[in-house]
Design brief:
158 residues; mainly alpha
């Protein structure tokens, strides 16, 4: 009987050990499940955080792109005005060229149509340049000089 009691005792202890082991295993499995669940939640939160950071980064990039676009607008406006500025800047050159052409045409016309008149004017200036040269002066007779002087004195006295 003692053997039987001892065997039952041993069997009871074995069952208790197995039950404790099973309970501990179940508890460990529960902890593991909770840990895995928390890990999944952390992973999901990490994914949400990554998505939020990505969205924030995209928003920041959008703001940076808008600022860059706004900063480059004066350059675009200047580029749009360049053809008109080129025309405006070339206008004085074109006007000067047109004026030079008209002056050249006038000079040619003057030389062709006034050649004879210019020749007569040159002869006249030659003749005027000769006034006072010896042999080209007219001498006033002495009696005309005397008569002119008497007329001047008479006008002063009277």
């Amino acid at each position: 009987m003692a053997n039987l009691d001892y065997t039952n005792y041993q069997n009871d202890i074995g069952r208790q050990e197995r039950a404790l082991s099973a309970i501990e295993g179940t508890r460990q499995q529960g902890f593991q499940n909770q840990f895995n669940s928390l890990g999944a939640q952390v992973g999901a939160l990490g994914a949400q955080q990554g998505a939020a950071q990505s969205q924030f980064g995209m928003g920041q990039q959008n703001v940076a792109n808008q600022q860059q676009a706004a900063a480059s607008m004066p350059g675009f406006a200047q580029a749009l005005l360049m053809p008109g500025q080129a025309v405006t800047q070339s206008r004085p050159v074109l006007d000067a060229d047109k004026q030079a052409s008209r002056i050249a045409d006038y000079d040619l016309w003057t030389r062709q149509n006034e050649a004879r008149t210019n020749q007569i004017a040159q002869y006249a200036s030659i003749l005027q340049g000769m006034q006072g040269a010896p042999g080209t002066q007219q001498e006033t007779p002495w009696w005309q000089s005397l008569l002119g002087g008497a007329a001047g004195i008479a006008s002063v006295v009277l």
